[in-house]
């Protein structure tokens, strides 16, 4: 069996930029990583030439890291039909993020499908399709857009597998689409991974096809099944539990797929309570146990 691809979200900041990201991932015992090309809450981005990509990849090869995935910022909302400027920003910025993802030598850009902001599922999905067609019809980069499974909080789209299928069905270049399967979000959306692991995967396979999963976010959930909340918990500290998450990490059907932790940072014992310590080294080791 090939080596399990397991890592976490890492920072890209300071002078070292991507080189620092790789060093951080190595310190956790990771062999894949996920990053944002800038702050996820805004559009401020350094020039590609400032990202230290070459030095990062030189170090990555020695560290045994051969693959990275990029996450698009949260501010991209292709589903917005209410504010034209929000939709236009989403399209323009997604185009730039695809270019930056390709420059980073990643072929996966994870995207939250979007929120319909009160206008309804049909209108929101039609707008997502419109936006993806505007972006992908004229783009030739070797980058897949991995639509993330969502928890369904507020007016979020993509909590139901069928909603992702509706997006696929409307996109001209649907071969450029993939899915990022988030365990916390799937649980919060009402899919019972704990009680019916195989049934959930079978349902996904029937609706979209299991081969469409390009990334898996391995997160426990602070909330029970179907809560539609989206609050990640540390591995084994939530309603999904370590056994199910370990099962997914070791599932041979996903052996070639990067699995990424996005669990909360921890506070030091006896400290101020501020969350200053990443949990990823311990959680990666825990999940790799047979």
Q: Span from first to last CA?
A: 13 Å
Main sheet?
A: 8 strands, parallel, barrel
Average pLDDT figure:
96
- Shape designation: globular
List keywords for this structure.
290 residues; alpha/beta; eight-stranded parallel beta barrel; two-stranded antiparallel ribbon; 9 helices; 12 strands; 16% strand
Walkthrough of the structure:
Helix content is 36%, strand content 16%. It is built from nine helices and twelve strands. The strands form three sheets. It has an eight-stranded parallel beta barrel with strand order 1-2-3-4-5-6-7-10, surrounded by five helices. Strands 8-9 form a two-stranded antiparallel ribbon. A two-stranded antiparallel sheet has the order 11-12. α1 (18-27) packs parallel to α2, α3 crosses α4 and α4 packs across α5 (161-170). It is globular. 45% of the residues are buried.
How do you describe this structure in short?
With 290 residues, the protein is of the alpha/beta class. The protein is 36% helix and 16% strand. The protein has helices spanning 18-27, 53-63, 84-103, 121-136, 161-170, 183-189, 197-207, 242-250, 280-288; strands at residues 6-9, 32-35, 67-71, 108-111, 144-148, 177-182, 213-218, 220-221, 232-233, 259-261, 266-267, 275-277.
What topology emerges from the helices and strands here?
Elements: E1 6-9, H1 18-27, E2 32-35, H2 53-63, E3 67-71, H3 84-103, E4 108-111, H4 121-136, E5 144-148, H5 161-170, E6 177-182, H6 183-189, H7 197-207, E7 213-218, E8 220-221, E9 232-233, H8 242-250, E10 259-261, E11 266-267, E12 275-277, H9 280-288
Parallel strand pairs: 1-2, 1-10, 2-3, 3-4, 4-5, 5-6, 6-7, 7-10
Antiparallel strand pairs: 8-9, 11-12
Helix pairs in contact: 1-2, 3-4, 4-5
């Amino acid at each position: 069996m090939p080596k399990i691809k397991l890592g976490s979200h890492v920072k890209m900041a300071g002078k070292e930029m991507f080189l620092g990201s790789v060093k951080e991932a190595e310190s956790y015992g990771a062999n894949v990583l996920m990053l944002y090309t800038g702050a996820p809450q805004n559009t401020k981005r350094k020039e590609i030439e400032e990202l230290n990509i070459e030095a990062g990849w030189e170090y990555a090869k020695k560290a045994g890291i051969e693959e990275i995935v990029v996450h698009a910022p949260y501010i991209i909302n292709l589903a917005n039909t209410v504010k034209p400027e929000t939709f236009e920003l989403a399209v323009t910025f997604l185009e730039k993020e695809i270019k930056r993802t390709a420059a980073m030598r990643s072929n996966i850009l994870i995207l939250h499908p979007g929120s319909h902001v009160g206008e309804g599922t049909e209108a929101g999905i039609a707008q997502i399709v419109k936006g993806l067609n505007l972006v992908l019809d004229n783009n030739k980069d070797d980058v897949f857009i991995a639509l993330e499974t969502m928890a369904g909080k507020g007016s979020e789209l993509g909590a139901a597998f069928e909603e992702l299928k509706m997006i696929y069905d409307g996109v001209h270049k649907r071969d450029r689409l993939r899915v990022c399967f988030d365990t916390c979000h799937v649980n919060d959306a009402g899919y019972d991974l704990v009680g019916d692991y195989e049934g959930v995967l079978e349902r996904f396979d029937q609706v979209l096809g299991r081969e469409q999963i390009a990334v898996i976010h391995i997160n426990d959930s602070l909330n029970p099944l179907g809560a539609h909340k989206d609050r990640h918990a540390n591995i084994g500290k939530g309603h999904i539990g370590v056994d199910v998450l370990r099962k997914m990490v070791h599932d041979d059907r996903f052996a070639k797929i990067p699995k990424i932790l996005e669990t909360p940072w921890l506070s030091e014992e006896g400290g101020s309570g501020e969350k200053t310590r990443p949990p990823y080294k311990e959680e990666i080791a825990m999940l790799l146990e047979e």
